[in-house]
Amino acid sequence: MLQVKNLTIIHKKDLTTLVEGLSFTLAPGDRAAIIGEEGNGKSTVLKLLCDPALVEPYAEWTGEILDRGLRKGYLAQELRPEELELPVPEFCQASAAFGAAGPRELARCSRQVGLELDTFYDWRLMSTLSGGERVKLRLALLILEQPDVLLLDEPSNDLDLATLTWLEGFLLSCPTPVLYISHDETLLERTANMVIHLERLRRRTLPRCTVARTGYRDYVDARQAGFTRQEQVARKERAEFDARMERFRQIRDKVEHAQATVPRYNSAGIPNASEGKMLKKKMHTVLSMGRRFQRERENLTQLPEWEEAILTAFDSCKAALPAGKTVLQLDLPELKAGERVLARNVRLWVTGPEKIGIVGANGVGKSTFLKLVAKELLPRTDLRAAYMAQDYADQLLGEKTPVDLLAPLGHKDDITRARTLLGAMKYKAEEMEHPAAGLSGGQRAKLLFLAMVLNGANVLVLDEPTRNFSPLSAPVIRQVLADFPGCILSVSHDRLYLSQVCDRVLELTPEGLRPVSLN
Looking at the whole model, is its pTM more than 0.90? Predict the structure, then answer.
């Protein structure tokens, strides 16, 4: 059993409190999902529970972590650069469990994750594997270790639809406790029986933790229903209080007016002390009533607070495309990665404001294909194309900050606009000055979307566009893309994205593209 008591985590660089007062217990059979907006400390919590040394360079913490010597199986969100440069067998040898495993055990684990057994001995560099192949390989190595508790940071990232189904079954049947982060709402709805929600309210300055032993959909629905009830009660109490305050102000104003106009002498010329004394006593009573009302104001039901997911929408005029406009007419005899042929006879014709979703097994070449599409579209002068790669490091280079990336020429007006837009998307001032490469995956995704908005793109080439958005942000980004009046060519394994945004879904196979139905 893993127990966390009153955990507080503070970012060293700007002393931002990421998490405050988090307490929960993880027991066998628990499948606890950590959810929250981008940059709220979800990955930091997992790293800390695995090994405090992982967060020591950038965060400090207080509280208790009681693990009683549990063997922890940790799946990091991303591999380190030096790991990416290792050949696959050398990467596998870093796992003691892999070295001790026999052929039968390796075959069993590879079958479980849908990975070819030969992959363990493939001398390609880890960086040349597809994102899904890397996740599958790491999950297989994790299973070999037979841990007492699993800490999984985005295990669903880059998995194809078949492996996502496997992952759901694996989580549901796993006897060991699992604490995981995922942005796949379908996966969360089908697997989580406990929710840990990390929020940062009041312009990301006030942390709040909520732990609920319930399913994800039940949690979201109950949370929204609770907010609705609380808002109704709070508004009713405020309306009644405001009416009482109005009556109080009328009485106070009447007494003040009487005090100001009381004659100093009565009609007989005698000082009018008694009436002034009576009005003074009455004012004292009125002021006492006002102090009581002030105390009552403090006890009114508070309006609910929640962290809203905000994403800037595209300009409908700039992004619009004519229905007959030819966006892409691609006829590719062979799709290659180096000298390896991934697919043959890949044909794609796209016109007007179509929204295309491409799916396929991991390693079939979806990202390779999308890079070729981007290479063809980006130089076009009759279109304004923008490309969002799966690996953000390709586009967020060096130490450039979000402001640098959105205002590359450094003009004062551009910088002001960039800061305004970042602020609207709840970037703190300190985060605007952080190197963009060091931001969370979701924050980097928002930044790239914002750059596409500023560039007035009318064709978007997107590789896994929702993969780094929280499950609470994902509905917002799906709506923005569904409303986008231009063309979208995308690779995605997000089942809700494919059904809600895409007009056509195509599967990339070794024999080319073919239409598929998700029903």
Answer: no
- 422 or 502, higher pLDDT: 502
Q: What is the CATH number assigned to the segment(s) 316-515?
A: 3.40.50.300
**504-509 sheet: strands from edge to edge:** 385-388, 459-463, 487-491, 355-359, 504-509, 512-515
What does the H/E/C string look like for 101-151?
CCHHHHHHHHHHHCCCHHHHHCCCEHHHCCHHHHHHHHHHHHHHCCCCEEE
Q: How far apart are the first and last CA of the chain?
A: 40
Per domain, the residue ranges of the chain are 2-224, 239-298, 316-515
Sole residue written with tokens 């009328």:
250
Query: Which pair of structure tokens corresponds to residue 285?
Result: 């009573």
Q: Please count the residues of the chain.
A: 519
Cα dihedral sign for 505, 134, 149, 22? Answer: negative
What does the pLDDT read at residue 24? 94
Q: Provide the token pair at 460.
A: 């978007």
User: Residues 52-56: contacts with CB within 8 Å, 24+ apart?
Assistant: 55/9
Is the per-residue pLDDT at 82 higher than 80? yes
Q: Two tokens at 394? A: 């390709």
Q: Do domains 2-224 and 316-515 have the same CATH topology?
A: yes
What's the topology of domain 2-224?
Rossmann fold (3.40.50)
